[in-house]
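Dear all,

This email documents one entry for the complex benchmark we are building for the journal club exercise. For each entry we list the sequence lines for every component of the assembly. Then comes the predicted three-dimensional structure of the complex as a token string, followed by one or two observations. Please use this as the template for your own entries, and keep the labels exactly as they appear.
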Amino acid sequence: MIVLVDRYNSEGERIKIDRLVVDTVQIKEKVIILEGGELPTTQYIRVAPGEPIDILISEDEYAKS
Amino acid sequence: MINIGIVGSEAAKFTSETEKIARDSIKTLIDRHDRVVSGGCHLGGIDIWAREEATKQGIPFIEFLPKTRNWEGYKKRNIQIAETSNVVVCITVKELPPGYRVRGFEKYCYHCKTDEHIKSGGCWTVKYAKGLGKNAFVAVIEDGRIVLAV
């Protein structure tokens, strides 16, 4: 699966910044966890509806959230 | 406990190739979730494949069926799916398959206000789920692959 990671610029426009090929996508309420594929380690993406996407937070940060 | 809602387009909007991609994606998406939620669309497609893949993986499946086959029935059903799910994914396609009988409104998704994928009622559910503060996405099959925009 390809995950298209978008974020917003300062004008609030959505911009595409990366495409990641992954094996598994685990969607939680505020975090998406991506594993496998071209990723060297598990990646965490913090998401909140209506807010800019915070990409690739650390495992430690995820554990604290 | 994380319930994942899987909704999306009817069977006629897929080819055998895009159906396979959709099924593989459903397998990936529902993995490690506690329950799968969907809407049992009578036209087949994503709702039914979600049920089948959940059953194969032994993941409990919750199906909300519309009481009537009109917008009133579908809207209530879609709200039940959004409210019961912690996260919602709508799986659709970028383009209609060859030979699909276009009625005029399918190529532009007026829920998402985009022509980057076809219209799907599942996008309404995604939009409603977002309004409830839930994590919800549209996953689009394009060029033989599926793209989940986060």
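Observations: Chain A is about 10% helix and 50% strand. The two ends of chain A are 26 Å apart (CA to CA).
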